[in-house]
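stuck on this one:
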Amino acid sequence: MKQKHQAFDRLLEKATPEQERQVSLSLDIVLKIEAILDRRGMSRKELAAAMGKRESEISKWMSGVHNFTLLTLAKLEVVLGEPLLLVSKEREKRD
């Protein structure tokens, strides 16, 4: 087990700030999805069925390192009935 942690630590040392941020965002999304599933009493299997996906694909998404597309996030939000991302809507003032 110690070897796995050492290998992971070596990978982290090589990660760029952008890669670290991507993993952090992915984990935040996964945690949010898990919380929604728990609140709704919904399983990953049920989520997969609602998304028209295989359970193995949902498990891959939930690994914490999946690069979610905006389309996938939009579909998840529709199926789950809750937002996963909150983005500030700032518009430039034009003269």
